[in-house]
Write a structure and sequence with these properties.
Number of helices: 2
Helix content: 10-25%
Radius of gyration: 26 Å
CATH class of one domain: Mainly Beta
Largest sheet: 5 strands, mixed, barrel
Shape: elongated
Distance between the termini: 70 Å
Strand content: 25-35%
Number of strands: 7
Length: 131
């Protein structure tokens, strides 16, 4: 059987480690470290009001697409291509799931999910009415 890597022998007869071993070890440790750090950003809990990104904090008084804020939010989603967002009073986060928030339009909710800080998007795991 042919060996791809033959160990080198020093003049003393000791077998030297092939040159690629430190590289493989460094790569394996790096991959494990990156995996550990990325999994550290697990699910978080966010509380706020389900709104749409068209009306946002400005309220629905100007657009008033329906008799209530909830109806206006739902109509903005359908008629204007708006997206459901969670407004926590400071930030507005786009919700990855655009079907589940419909039942909670204009209501205060608790969203469990993972935040992508760059895009301000929450990958939604669950939504429930806040107490």
């Amino acid at each position: 059987m042919m060996r791809l890597f033959t160990p080198c022998k020093a003049s003393s007869g000791a077998v030297l480690a092939p040159a690629w071993r430190p590289f493989v070890l460094y790569t394996a440790v790096s991959v494990l470290l990156v995996a550990a750090l990325s999994s550290a950003q697990g699910a978080q809990t966010f509380t706020g009001v389900i709104a749409d990104d068209q009306c946002g904090r400005g309220g629905h008084a100007q657009m008033r697409m329906g008799p209530t804020d909830a109806e206006c939010t739902k109509i903005c989603i359908v008629a204007h291509g708006a997206k459901y967002v969670l407004d926590d009073g400071t930030n507005m986060y786009v919700l990855s799931d655009q079907k589940l928030p419909e039942a909670f339009a204009a209501q205060k909710v608790t969203v469990v999910g993972t935040l992508d800080a760059k895009t301000k998007t929450i990958r939604v795991e669950s939504i429930k009415a806040a107490r």
